[in-house]
Write a structure and sequence with these properties.
This is Cysteine synthase. The chain is an alpha/beta fold. The chain has ten helices and ten strands.
Length: 310
């Protein structure tokens, strides 16, 4: 007797299938960029999951919790303001769930990003280039308030399910592989990766030092914090978590893109290189210990930058 093939699994079943493709990323040793064998550096290759970046974790958790609570379903549209990895992650995941996505973007967002999002079926709502991402956030919020029956506002800068994805996911994966780590370093965008991972690590072992990293100028993916004093600090940021802040210069991050490629065989994004720059700075200050960081994505979406560096 032939078995019946289930062609239309429920949304919950499809969420279960997607869950298998989120997280559990490899923790790679960084071996050849520093000389002290008593200092170990490990970096989580976050491109090794659905949609190719660390933002798969936050986007999936935001969507999963919203579906579970009945705020998001096939007849609603997920709305947020982002042209970056979160937008790509929302679009990839929502598509598999039959949920539509609308994103508010400043009209001067890069053509490369617009094309990726359009090819994933995103409805792009353009905002003025003068208002930048702040205006795009405002417009998204206003639209969601005006049409609550149409939109679910995902709000990655304010949604606790962003940092919780790292509290329950990233941190637990690190603890499983390197339970004796001494330092965790991560750059600040929405701050979800840093806040969520650090909170859990420090809860398990308060001696772990957590270091928040910021670029000197907005660097791809680390724009959440933007220009230090003038920025709107993301609502999910908790200033009491970081033991220390490090600033990384753009030239140093770019130098690390080249070094990681030449010495470690890793072709990564600017924010990944900035994290490694931070880890190396720490490595130079200590005589022994284990440092863990993340590589938010690889170089695929940064061809213009990579062309100039390599
Ligand atoms: N790097 C890249 C490439 C990113 O897209 C992001 C997210 N904006 C980050 C780093 C920062 O991650 P988070 O939002 O969790 O702080």
């Amino acid at each position: 007797m032939a078995h019946e093939v289930e062609t239309y699994p429920t949304i919950e079943a499809r969420i279960g299938l997607i869950a298998r493709q989120i997280g559990n990323t490899p923790l790679l040793p960084i071996r050849y960029l520093h000389a002290n064998p008593k200092v170990k550096i490990y970096a989580k290759a976050e491109w090794s999951q659905l949609s190719g970046s660390v933002k798969a974790r936050a986007a999936f958790n935001i969507i999963r919790q919203a579906v579970a609570q009945g705020h998001l379903h096939e007849n609603k549209t997920l709305l947020d303001a982002t042209s970056g990895n979160t937008g790509i992650a929302y679009a990839t995941i929502a598509r598999e769930l039959g949920i539509s996505v609308a994103l508010c973007l400043p009209e001067n967002a890069s053509i490369e990003r617009k094309q990726i999002l359009e090819s994933l079926g995103v409805n792009i709502i353009y905002t003025s280039k003068f208002g930048g991402t702040d205006e795009a956030q405002e417009v998204a919020k206003e639209l969601a308030e005006k049409y609550p029956e149409r939109y679910f506002y995902a709000g990655q800068y304010t949604n606790d399910n962003n940092w919780k994805a790292h509290y329950y996911g990233t941190a637990e994966e690190i603890l499983k592989r390197q339970p004796d780590l001494n330092y965790f370093v991560a750059g600040l965008g929405t701050t979800g990766t840093f806040v969520g991972t650090s909170r859990r690590l420090k809860e398990v072992n308060p001696d772990i030092q957590v270091v928040a990293l910021q670029p000197d100028f907005a660097l791809h993916g680390l724009e959440g914090w933007k220009h230090l004093e003038t920025a709107i600090v993301p609502q999910i940021y908790d200033a009491s978590v970081a033991d220390r802040h490090l600033e990384i210069s753009t030239p140093r991050a770019y130098e690390l893109i080249k070094l990681l490629y030449e010495k470690e065989g890793l072709l990564v994004s600017p924010s990944s290189a900035a994290n490694i720059a931070g880890a190396l700075q720490l490595a130079n200050e200590i005589t022994e210990g284990t440092i863990v960081t993340v590589l938010p994505d690889n170089a695929d979406k940064y061809s213009e930058v990579i062309k100039k560096i390599l």
